[in-house]
Amino acid sequence: MGRYTEIRREAFEANIQIPALGLAIYTFGNVSAYDPDLGVFAIKPSGVPYADLKPEHMVVVDLDNAVVDGDLRPSSDTNTHSVLYRAFAGIRGITHTHSTYATAWAQACMPIPVFGTTHADHLAREVPCTEVMSDAMIRGDYETETGNQILAAFKGLSPAEVEMVLVACHGPFTWGVSAEKALYNSAVLEEIARMALLTRQVNPDAGPLKPSLIDKHYQRKHGKNAYYGQ
Amino acid sequence: MGRYTEIRREAFEANIQIPALGLAIYTFGNVSAYDPDLGVFAIKPSGVPYADLKPEHMVVVDLDNAVVDGDLRPSSDTNTHSVLYRAFAGIRGITHTHSTYATAWAQACMPIPVFGTTHADHLAREVPCTEVMSDAMIRGDYETETGNQILAAFKGLSPAEVEMVLVACHGPFTWGVSAEKALYNSAVLEEIARMALLTRQVNPDAGPLKPSLIDKHYQRKHGKNAYYGQ
Amino acid sequence: MGRYTEIRREAFEANIQIPALGLAIYTFGNVSAYDPDLGVFAIKPSGVPYADLKPEHMVVVDLDNAVVDGDLRPSSDTNTHSVLYRAFAGIRGITHTHSTYATAWAQACMPIPVFGTTHADHLAREVPCTEVMSDAMIRGDYETETGNQILAAFKGLSPAEVEMVLVACHGPFTWGVSAEKALYNSAVLEEIARMALLTRQVNPDAGPLKPSLIDKHYQRKHGKNAYYGQ
Amino acid sequence: MGRYTEIRREAFEANIQIPALGLAIYTFGNVSAYDPDLGVFAIKPSGVPYADLKPEHMVVVDLDNAVVDGDLRPSSDTNTHSVLYRAFAGIRGITHTHSTYATAWAQACMPIPVFGTTHADHLAREVPCTEVMSDAMIRGDYETETGNQILAAFKGLSPAEVEMVLVACHGPFTWGVSAEKALYNSAVLEEIARMALLTRQVNPDAGPLKPSLIDKHYQRKHGKNAYYGQ
């Protein structure tokens, strides 16, 4: 078994789940899996439909965006992934999609408020939204700057506690301790985004969850005395 | 056949229907089945995906929340279930989900008005919504207090006539004479919640159903001269 | 082959399409098929889930609502069907559902305006909505009065040209030259209802289609010089 | 293999994808495939359900709308297709659907603003919407005039750069270098239309994407230095 077999398998399995979970049509999303020991990640090849993907198609790239193994061109979003792997210690998977409701909030350039416990079960604050990029950044190394915009939005935030972000005008990125967890976070974000819009439609004056309830739900799943799960 | 085989089977079969009915993704919901003779209920284990569940995984718990049989940790919502089984005579199944539209009304902290006969076929008044919990309750035995909030919302209401509730900021709980009926009520509630939001979007001035029509539809299915069904 | 075999088969095949087309959950809808020579119709039995239905379960009823063949109790909406078969010459099938968007318009007590050609391809005017029933009618022979309310809404309208109606506070009824066509009309109505709400959400000032365009689309499918289809 | 076998196969395969992609129910959509060397296109027969279609059913028509091969009547929208094939050099496939969200924008008679990069990945300006047709045009050769309205909306626009349009009060037409690409554009348009409505619901003041970002996303997929795909 080659040294990249495992991250290729992880990235492949998460990528093919994107359409199954309804998170993107055609090729509008990608997942990568990172091996911190080797300092490389496996990522979806650019523009290849999910139905045609095989594990060996996953392109292995280092943190300077150089292809170290694979015959195909990596996702056009590769440089955004590498920025996050360099900056966010401990993450081992990243997912980017254009899922419908999360993208609507991103296009509206608005963070998603904590309206309920479904949200607080996963993160204890609003889903952040980046600033809109400057023209200079857009005309520069665009995908790297997309990563930099995410880092700027995470000043003062912990990427281990908030594993998702909306890139303004574009769509969501999520991450986690594995490619599978990053993908899970994309599905959760889509559901949170949908519930949040519907909540405001039911009651335009709906306010955010009270801090004690946010804390309770986040801690029962993620705190040191967590009692959710096995 | 063991004494818990039947309630485990009932709970198992209802739990695996949650994703099939579109009522929750991942592990965001649970069903329990109660045996009043034994004074115990079987409930989904915490954090286990529906696709991995087997009947023997269901955890058997008594009304003081003590595990009496099973190798796994029961749902983190177990204490809420036991409060309801203790207080609501005659119910034998409880379902909790984070279904999208019912959760949106819960997050909006609003009861669902009776806008049509689909609603009145199942209950003759609005779907109640609990008060938001106090910080003291949240920091106490949270899941037991969730049950207590439901009881407070049912002052003057019959749990045999109203088999569903919205827990403010959180999501729906439903119950019934069996686990299967509790699950049915969760699916019906989701559809009622969706229709109610759409009704107000079609006509923001839509008013509630007139009392005679509520009564007619409720009685034809549930009254002593009911003529719906076989 | 018995004299009722054909209408039972037609009613059965249309009824089991209700959940496949997403027009109702559980038992929230029914189709009947009418034989004008025999003066009877076959209708879904009350409260039986679609998955359990067999052709022989269909109950054969005459136009006075007397069961002439079958072991089960007919749909609780049977009397509404018989009113329509008596009054609307030429129809041979009726469908009633609680499909989500059509029901939202019914609960809003509003007719559906002709916003586009999808609507005009099927009927040349708004989908009518009945008046809300009086208390006396509700407390009388309710299901027969539901049919009477539909007849009242059709004063001046041709049931051959307008094959659908919204019963205020309740939901849609549709009909046609066969059970299959009645079912088709229910699916079309649901799509028209959904498009109409979305159209107003895109543009609250959206007006109805101009008369010449309504006429063009209706006539090219239904006029004497129709050129749609084979 | 006959001279029309290939365009019949292309048209057939794209047509049967319409319901699979959720772009239309029943017969509410059609795709054609054009052979510029032969000057003919193969198009869906009128009113035939997708499930009943076979490749040999596709009707071969020339640019004057004369049937040159096939036993069935071609789509009632045939004349609109021929107008576009005559005027838009280089296109080889056209799709027309009544997909729900795109039709809602068409019924609202509004172009779809560029709210995000999903849109800009496919076209660098809003999705145009035609003018409402005059009564004289409607009463004339209606389907040809529908094509003429599209041409009028494309004054100053390149059909190679903008491969989609909304026909006011009616629904979308899309095209491309193949029938498959035309169908792809219909699915993309439906998703763009849905995201655009949701974006405005999240934030009624959402503005269009800045020009530099539109340009960046369009060029990275379609410009001379495009780096998306293999």
TrEMBL record, chains A, B, C, D:
Q: Name one GO biological process term.
A: pentose catabolic process
Q: What is its EC number?
A: 5.1.3.4
Q: What is this protein called?
A: L-ribulose-5-phosphate 4-epimerase
Query: Sorted alphabetically, which Gene3D superfamilies does this protein's record hold?
Result: Class II aldolase/adducin N-terminal domain
SMART domains the UniProt entry points to: Aldolase_II
Q: What Pfam families does the database record attribute to this sequence?
A: Aldolase_II (PF00596)
UniProtKB keywords: Carbohydrate metabolism, Isomerase, Metal-binding, Zinc
- The answer, when asked if Metal-binding is one of the entry's keywords, is yes
Instruction: Identify which cofactors the protein needs according to its UniProt entry.
Output: Zn(2+)
Name the PANTHER family on file: FUCULOSE PHOSPHATE ALDOLASE, L-RIBULOSE-5-PHOSPHATE 4-EPIMERASE SGBE
